[in-house]
Design a protein that fits this description.
Layout (H helix, E strand, L loop, with lengths): L9 E5 L9 E8 L10 E3 L9 E3 L6 E3 L7 E3 L5 H4 L5 E3 L5 E7 L4 H6 L9 H8 L6 H15 L5 E6 L4 E6 L5 E5 L5 E4 L16 E3 L3 H7 L11 H5 L4 H18 L15 E2 L7 H8 L30 E9 L9 E6 L9 E4 L7 H4 L10 H14 L1 H30 L4 H36 L12
Antiparallel strand pairs: 1-2, 1-12, 2-15, 3-6, 4-5, 7-8, 8-9, 9-10, 10-11, 11-13, 12-14, 15-16, 16-17
Length: 476
């Protein structure tokens, strides 16, 4: 069933005044139902005057025509899309509009009783390719998505992330046709984890909120507002159950604990705030840490030693079934022609590096765009998955070396970006695109060799950690 394909992701959104360098950032772990679901990273060229192009789902009967002109964009789809669906998941188009889709979100039975899901509507498997190639701002992306939901309906609860260099938007589609989107304030961050997150909606402020036509009348007609005062989207359309307490809320709690350690909150609290502020300027590295986190240094960490049952009480953010983790960064301190960077991790986000890709590109490296369905070290997907498995197999012994490896990668990546930014000033147009593509490929190959060397070290050390050993006289 298509409804099982994406079951649990984690989202982080950061406004430009809350980030370290003035960037907008949207980020998400793409978690799947199965631990193994090979993905690739490919680039779609811009199209002009393309005639009668129809996007069709492989998972239901959805199909729709798309505009004849499109912008270029990268995506991270399934390799076996004919059985698993496209699920392009994330990308930044040539207008520097970023989109990540989707965060599975569950509406309650009261609201769904009056506006049920539409089985053949627009779902996560096609939503990126229906929207991202055709929008020139984050607000326009929300608007186009809303128009498509009005036309075709939604077969699942889906939340979608959008950004450009000024705005960050979070859109929650909770029934067959109804949704609300909220702009993340410039000085704020937000974290979402598989439940309705948006709280009070101000219908007098269309600059900060967008919504489906007739949603206020719908709520009033069917008496869905459970509060005596206010219009709390989470209360009206969301859930409040045991799964939220153990599967969803704790991930939000841990992220807010990291950014706001001064605030004491309960991991199971249903009223954790959506819009948050912190005095800590948020970096790419902060987001990488959270997307790979597992309740580090708390009693809930499943990787800690001991048998305390609390270590398995809550679902962590970083998982073995995270198929790709991404941070979509639109910078404001450089030329817009090379301001967009897509940080992409194809291994476990806990143990694997996030490689930075300038999205002003014309192709991706073959190790990323030609992925086999079975294990093959030529492929980035399998390379980083394999390295992750080796680290986790002897976590206690390898955790420090992994921290050191990732620290080295992050330092190298930042240095490479600074150098590339400087050199990019000497290029324009197609020559700039060619140069940035070459820089992407060069970084891929450098990190590939470093990762292979690290895997060799892990493999050799693992042999010496075998339990099939015994102290022997060296002279025997």
């Amino acid at each position: 069933m298509f409804s099982k394909k994406r079951t649990a992701c984690t989202t982080i959104l950061v406004g430009k005044k809350a980030s370290l360098d003035g960037s907008t950032m949207i980020a998400r772990n793409d978690d799947t139902f199965q631990a193994v679901a090979p993905h690739k990273f490919e680039y779609h060229q811009p199209q002009n005057n393309q005639q009668k192009v129809i996007v069709k789902s492989w998972l239901n009967n959805f199909q729709a025509a798309v505009p004849e002109n499109s912008y270029g964009w990268p995506g991270v789809p399934n390799v076996d899309y004919q059985h698993e669906g496209y699920y392009d998941e994330s990308g930044i188009n040539t207008k520097n509009v970023a989109m990540s889709a989707t965060e599975s979100t569950y509406g309650n039975e009261r609201a769904l009783a009056y506006d049920p899901l539409i089985p053949d509507g627009l779902d996560e498997d096609c939503i990126v390719r229906m929207v991202l190639p055709y929008v020139d701002s984050a607000r326009a992306a929300v608007q186009r998505t809303g128009e498509l939901i009005a036309q075709f309906g939604s077969p699942a609860g889906n939340s979608v992330l959008f950004s450009d260099n000024n705005d960050v938007w979070y859109m929650e589609i909770v029934t067959g046709h109804h949704w609300v989107a909220q702009r993340i304030p410039d000085d704020a961050y937000a974290i979402a984890a598989n439940r309705v997150s948006i709280q009070q909606v101000d219908f007098n402020n269309p600059h900060e909120f967008m919504w489906s036509p007739g949603i206020q009348e719908f709520v009033a007609q069917y008496h869905l507002n459970t509060d005596a005062q206010g219009w709390n989207f989470r209360h009206i359309f969301g859930t409040n159950n045991q799964k939220d307490h153990h599967y969803n809320n704790p991930r939000v709690w841990f992220g807010q604990r990291y950014f706001n350690p001064e605030i004491n909150q309960n991991p199971e609290d249903d009223e954790l705030p959506f819009i948050c502020h912190t005095n800590h300027k948020i970096s790419v590295e902060d987001i990488e840490y959270l997307l790979g986190s597992h309740y580090n240094e708390t009693a809930y960490d499943p990787l800690q030693s001991g048998t305390d049952p609390k270590k398995y009480l809550y679902r962590p953010i970083g998982l073995n079934r995270t198929q790709n983790s991404h941070i979509l960064q639109i910078r404001n301190n450089v030329d817009p022609q090379f301001a967009a960077i897509m940080w992409l991790c194809l291994g476990y986000p806990t143990f694997s590096p996030y490689l930075p890709f300038y999205t002003n590109m014309n192709d991706t490296d073959p190790s990323f765009n030609d992925t086999a369905m079975t294990f093959n070290l030529k492929d980035a997907y399998w390379l980083y998955k394999g390295m992750s498995v080796l680290v986790e197999a002897h976590y206690k012994e390898f955790v420090q070396s992994n921290i050191d490896f990732l620290t080295q990668c992050r330092q190298q990546f930042r240095s490479a970006i600074v150098q590339t930014d400087q050199n990019a000033l000497h290029y324009q147009g197609t020559e700039l695109t060619k140069f940035l593509t070459q820089q992407n490929q060069s970084l891929v190959q450098t990190n590939r060799q470093q990762t292979l060397k690290y895997m060799q070290d892990l493999m050799t050390q693992s042999i010496n950690l075998s339990h099939l050993t015994f102290n022997m006289d060296k002279n025997l």
